[in-house]
Input
Amino acid sequence: MSGKKLTAPAITAMKRSGERIAVLTAYDCMTARIVDSIGVDAILVGDSAAMVVLGYKNTLPVTVAEMVMLTAAVARAKTRALVIGDLPFMSYQADVGDAVRAAGVFIKEGGAEAVKLEGGVRIADKLSAVVNAGIPVMGHIGLTPQSVHEFGGYRVQGKDEKARANLLADARAVEESGCFSVVLEAMPRELARQITEMLSIPTIGIGAGPDCDGQVLVVNDILEYTDGRPARFVRSYADVGSIVEDAARRYVADVKSGNYPDDEECY
Ligand code: KIV
Output
């Protein structure tokens, strides 16, 4: 899709103009080109890559080097969409300096135009330090998968009064830290609506209902190109897993039978 390059301030401005924000993940150049060509607004090189690309059982093991390599592949697509790199577990939690340096590597070596960090109040110092280094930051609150062990699984967050109050405080902290947008993951739609009304930065929902300013999904989920049962909030738009399986099966059968290559497929 041709058109003006989307920047972090342009994404923030979409909330004011009332245009909904469509975000998808991508982890390679080809997928980035395709989703960009149809007008996605931002591409998140999510640490979900740990599971859907690298085969880890959760997002915790993925490293900065692995994430930066995938981010650089997406950035080489030279998209109109904003490219956001996801800081992996333990690249920013321990120390403000770590956070700024890790974010810097995503910008300098990965070609990212923004980064995402998980957490609210308790990482507010890291969020504002990265913002103060001149790097646009997307926040991420609610079900933050890097805290899976703390939560005891991938559970909907913000279900009781105290949890709701904590998430409202997280949302405020993210905005006050200077983030240009915030992901709201797996929370009751009413709470997501309240946060969306409260904040001047856009909320990007995933399992947070229709009242957010935008939505994000993992591209492998909308393509059914993943293992396991999809979460309830995922909508499938294609069964790529079956397409790959069928193509690979027919190719193997052709090789085994001598049907491939034929005369037209030779030099
Ligand atoms: O890692 C990821 O893909 C994400 C999104 C699902 C928000 O964090």
The chain is about 40% helix and 15% strand. The radius of gyration is 20 Å. The chain has two domains: 8-236, 239-267.
